[in-house]
Amino acid sequence: MVGYPGEEAEDLQMTAELLRELAPDEYSCTVAYPLKGTPFYDVVKDKLLPVEWTSSNNNRLVWDSPFPERYYTWQLIRMALTSLFSPPRLGDARKVFAPVHWALDVLSRAVDPRVANPAFPISKDAQKATMNRGAALGPVRADREGLLAVQASGK
Fold it and tell me: Which of 1, 19, 79, 127 could form a disulfide with 29 if both were Cys (CB 3.0 to 4.6 A apart)?
C-alpha cells in the first residue's frame, strides 16, 4: 500500500526495489484508505475527504494527504510496470529489463512529492505515531531485511 502519513519517496523506491528482487508471481498495490478502528484512521480522521464510503474507493486518496493523488497514481502505475518487467519465470534473465527499471526510477525521482499541501500540516509527531504502530499498518518505512522478514513469516 502507498499513501500513509510520513511516507517519503525513498520508501516507495525501496518498495519498487523489493518488488524487483522478490519478483512475485502475483502482487497487489493500492492507495491506503483509513478504516474506522485502525490507528491510520485515528491519525487522519480529521482530514478525510468527502467521498462515498459505500465502497473501498480502491486506488483513490480519501484523506487530505500532503502529496497529490496523481503522485500516488503514478506510484501505482510504476509498481505495476515494475512487476510486469520482473517476471519470475525468467530468473536471472530478468536483468535484460534493467534499463526499463532504471527509466522508471528516473521518472519517479522527477516527480517531486515534496510539494507539501499547506491545507494539511501534519506534524512529525503524528507521522511517527502512525509509523510506530507498524503491526497494524503493515511494514511502513521498514528496511529491506524487515520487509523480507514479514514476507517470510507470512504476516
Answer: 79
**How confident is the model over 27-85, as pLDDT tens digits?**
888 888 888 899 989 999 999 888 776 665 567 888 888 788 888 888 889 999 988 88
Distance CA 141, CA 50 (A): 28
What global pTM score does this model have?
0.64
Give ∠ CA 32-36-42 in degrees, rounded to 5.
Answer: 80
Domain boundaries, the chain: 9-153
Q: How far is CA 83 from CA 45, 78, 98, 145, 149, in A?
A: 33, 9, 12, 20, 20
**CA nearest to 132, candidates 140, 122, 121, 124:** 140
Would you say 34 and 63 are in contact if contact means Cβ atoms under 8 Å apart? yes
Q: What percentage of the chain has pLDDT greater than the value 70?
A: 67
Please report, for residues 46, 63, 106, 155, the alpha-carbon distance to residue 122 in angstroms, rounded to integers and kept in the order given.
11, 12, 28, 29
